[in-house]
Write a structure and sequence with these properties.
By secondary structure, this protein is of the alpha/beta class. Helices cover 33% and strands 19% of the residues. It contains seven helices and nine strands. The protein starts with a strand and ends with a helix. The protein binds 6-chloroguanine. Residues 86-88, 136-139, 141-143, 145-146, 149 line the site of 6-chloroguanine (6GU).
């Protein structure tokens, strides 16, 4: 799987060289590249934004650099790619979205800043035969640009790719869990810490009882978070 990120802040993605994802890139289980949008911006000032038609606060990213940058990605790669526009107006990203995107050969992120990208860019590429286009939000709050959302999405997708996670059993356990997440409380040594004991059942060696306990504990936790208990 290849990840391409188009951004005015390529440095934002430095953390991807750390940890499991960094290792996966090193051993070529993943390919990762950034493209600096300013390379496609005109003039000495390399400006990528302008004032909004119709007035209002803030600036809007101009369509031309985006068109040129995305066209370059298309010309340097073959076949169909998934083009992701992180936007608070998108559909909310979840584990199902991550699983679906993890079947792609090439994920391209178009990270907007300011008040967003000129809407004609999405309209234009939605109709492109080599592009599956996605507008994705990472939750009901606003952050300053698509970069943080792209980082989150890349991490959620990359860990589903074979060879990225050290112990693939942890993925299996997640997908067997009905909610698709590991949500039971976990414990390690010592068995008693500051007077707090690890639940006896986890020391029992009874795998059936442990499974049942974990399922119930996960439900309780979820219920408590949703204010039902
Ligand atoms: Cl994808 N972008 C921005 N700017 N804010 C967000 C978001 C994305 N998802 C939630 N909030």
């Amino acid at each position: 799987m290849k990840f391409t990120v188009i951004t005015i802040f390529p440095e934002y993605f430095a953390p991807l060289s750390l940890s499991l994802i960094g290792k996966a890139i090193e051993k070529e289980a993943l390919e990762f590249e950034t493209i600096d949008l300013r390379k496609f911006a005109p003039g000495n000032r390399r400006s990528v934004d302008d004032t909004p038609y119709g007035g209002g606060a803030g600036m809007v990213m101009s369509p031309e650099p985006w068109g040129d940058a995305i066209d370059e990605v298309l010309s340097k790669n073959e076949g169909v790619l998934d083009l992701v526009f992180p936007t608070p107006a998108g559909s909310v990203f979840n584990q199902r979205t991550a699983e679906s995107l993890s079947t792609s050969n090439h994920l391209v992120f178009a990270c907007g800043r300011y008040e967003g990208i000129d809407a004609r860019v999405v309209d234009f590429y939605r109709a492109h035969l080599r592009i599956r286009l996605h507008e994705i939000s990472i939750g009901d709050y606003v952050i300053n640009g698509g970069e943080g959302a792209a980082l989150v999405t890349i991490e959620a997708v990359a860990r589903l790719i074979p060879g990225v996670i050290g112990n693939p059993d942890s993925l299996l356990e997640e997908s067997h869990n009905e909610i698709g997440e590991v949500e039971y409380p976990v414990y390690t040594k010592p068995a008693i810490w500051r007077g707090l004991a690890v639940p006896d059942v986890l020391l029992s060696g009874n795998h059936g009882a442990i499974q049942n306990w974990r399922r119930d504990a996960a439900r309780k936790r979820k219920g408590a978070q949703n204010g039902r208990e």
